[in-house]
Amino acid sequence: MEDENQVKARALVERLLSVPEQAAEFIDDNVSSALPPGSTIVEFGPHGTAYWTKTLEIKAIQASGTPLKYFLKVNHTHAGGQVLEGEFASLEAIHRLLPDFVPKPIAQGSYASDPDVHFLLMEFLDLRGDVPDVDSLPAKLAEMHLKGTSPNGKFGFHLHTGPAFLQGKYGQSITWSSSWEALFTSMYIPVFHWEQSMHGKDDEMQTLFKSMIEKVIPRLLRPLETGKNKIRPCLLHGDLWDGNTGTDASTESPLIFDPASFYGHNEYDLAPWNLPRHKIYRPYIREYQRHFERADPKEDYEDRLLLYRQ
């Protein structure tokens, strides 16, 4: 039998997933006002699939006659709006650094017709139906990591960029920290509490969680910031599995999207590539290492990737 926390957690997920159908059946005034002045929307409709949002393609024409295409994401609830705010900030950070690596973010906000419905508008990019090539994505990601330095030299971000279910009560902390170990720990704890709220308490899992916090995380991350070792905070995508990548159909260059960015250890972004079920896997990690060397101590590298998979 589910306890009160499980009931509340499942209710939260159900509400986040139940984006009103009518929210994607028209273009709200706050969305249309974000288009270039004089633009006319000529067509819009569903495009692609997403777990937490409704997604649409918008076709418009500028006053000059130039055709435009946009991608619109729509969700609802306060937590959902915070997720889109975080994604917009993430896209802005990456686009400033490497404008050909992500869609250009245009606007983010709430519907004029319903303040509980939120949107994210970005440029529409035509994609090829495959993951980026092993010769292109790792090099581009390494370039982002090498160039994307933290504005204040610390780990973290200026707002929350994680999943909707880690908003509010489960408040995953992405606030600024001078320590990668401290930031990672503050991100890890709410994930465990969320899983516990969904599946119920388990004594063995509680014991393992205590060991992770007190032993495993310090053992693997503290050496990265001890003695001569000093990793620097890099701009991360934050959720770089193959479903969040693509190839630009016109330029054939790699693209990434749906970021949940923050400044952290660059190896964090490689963790999803260590899963055999993904299309982007170990060869991509090996290619990445040609552009960004493993951190010291190198003998802990594989264990760090396992930890970052969390």
Automatic annotation (TrEMBL):
The UniProt catalytic activity note for this protein reads:
N(6)-D-ribulosyl-L-lysyl-[protein] + ATP = N(6)-(3-O-phospho-D-ribulosyl)-L-lysyl-[protein] + ADP + H(+)
Stored InterPro entries: Fructo-/Ketosamine-3-kinase, Kinase-like_dom_sf
Record's Gene3D superfamilies?
3.90.1200.10
Which Pfam family is one of this chain's hits? Fructosamin_kin
EC number(s) given by UniProt: 2.7.1.172
Gene Ontology molecular function, alphabetical: protein-ribulosamine 3-kinase activity
PANTHER family according to UniProt: FRUCTOSAMINE 3 KINASE-RELATED PROTEIN, PROTEIN-RIBULOSAMINE 3-KINASE
Q: What is this protein called?
A: protein-ribulosamine 3-kinase
Organism annotation: Coleophoma cylindrospora
